[in-house]
Amino acid sequence: MNSLHSLENGTVSITNNQTHSSWVPVAVLFRFEAAVTGTVTITRETGGTSFQLATVDLSGNQSATWIPEAAYQFNLNDVLTITSTATNGTVEIIRKAAQ
Fold it and tell me: Domain of life of the organism in this record (predicted)?
């Protein structure tokens, strides 16, 4: 599964609202219209608690990638949130079914 989102608002969130299905992020790809400097933060919210999974520092980058080192499983109502200080681009979130 993959989905492409604008970073225009600075925040993108995906909620798992499937009762009998879980997924894990495989990669998060960032593309910007021009080189940017800023920070991207990736968090997971589960049971009302937020956990920071990664921070990506951008310094003159036009693209960046985050590939999780662990299989972060997102179950019902868990939320994956990407926050970016650079807003002139897109983020592609690639996920697969949890095993």
Answer: Bacteria
